Amino acid sequence: MVKHLLETHYFFIFDSKNYNMEMDISTLGNVAEANFKKVIAHFKEELVKIRAGKASVSMLDGIMVDYYGTPTALSQVANINTPDSKTLSIQPWEKSMLAPIEQAIFGANLGLTPMNDGEFVRIIIPPLTEDRRKDLVKQAKSEGENAKVSIRNERQKWMSFIKKEVKDGYPEDAGKKKESELEGIVKNYIKNIDDLFAAKEKDILTV
Predict the structure, then answer these.
(1) How many CB atoms within 10 Å of residue 18?
(2) Residue 125 confidence class, pLDDT cut points 50, 70, 90
């Protein structure tokens, strides 16, 4: 069976020990693409963390609330809305959860200040300065470059693997075809990264 690559941030550790040549070569495109998808998913997660100055429900992703002693996702104990582009409104299913929700948001250190009015927890998203917007664009670009490096490193590892299998007896023409297939996949994912960055840049710079 194909041994999965181990993810560390954007990067993967490739291990070619005990690979079955026929199985790995025939499924290489699918296996490589599965790892590229992990890179894209992580890149998207990092982009979500870069706040563009607009209220978004996703800002509160990952926040866990103490629900009667059990850590529970905020979205499972409250309804979260964005009544306008600058406001997050959180209405718990139970009023007793207002304080725990407020505490959880403070504890998440997101730079957001929740306000409890006895019915809702509201968060006003502060506007971004021009310099701050530029810094966020640089941050998003850096994350994009990290993702591209990971894709290219992964590409190189698979290319080396193909060459090794050809050297060990896999047909050279078939090996060239696999290299071409891999190059096409890599090109598509690099473009995907560029498109995601461009969309985030526009979002950040739109006042």
Answers:
(1) 7
(2) confident
Is 0.85 topped by the overall pTM?
A: no
Q: Which residues pair with 115 in a beta bridge?
A: 122
Q: Let me know if residue 1 belongs to a domain.
A: no
Say how many Å lie between the first and final Cα of the chain, rounded: 51
**Cα atoms in the 13 Å half-sphere on the side-chain side of 4:** 6
Q: Two tokens at 87?
A: 């406001």
Q: SS3 helix, strand, coil % of the chain, rounded to 5?
A: 60, 15, 25
DSSP secondary structure letters along 98-132: HHHHHHHHHHTT-S--EEE-SS-EEEEPPPPPHHH
The tokens for 49 are 């963390």
Examine the fold and report which residue of 124, 146, 174 is the final residue of a domain before the chain moves on: 124
Q: Tell me, what DSSP letter sits at residue 6? A: E
- Which residue, 124, 143, 165, sits at the end of a domain? 124
Assess if residue 103 is contained within a domain. Answer: yes
Instruction: Calculate the alpha carbon distances from 191 to 10, 77, 125, 184 in Å.
Output: 17, 38, 32, 11
List, for residues 41-53, the tens digit of each pLDDT value: 999 988 987 877 7
Q: Which domain holds residue 190?
A: 6-49+130-205
Q: Is residue 171 part of a domain?
A: yes
Question: What integer is the mean pLDDT of 135-144?
Answer: 95
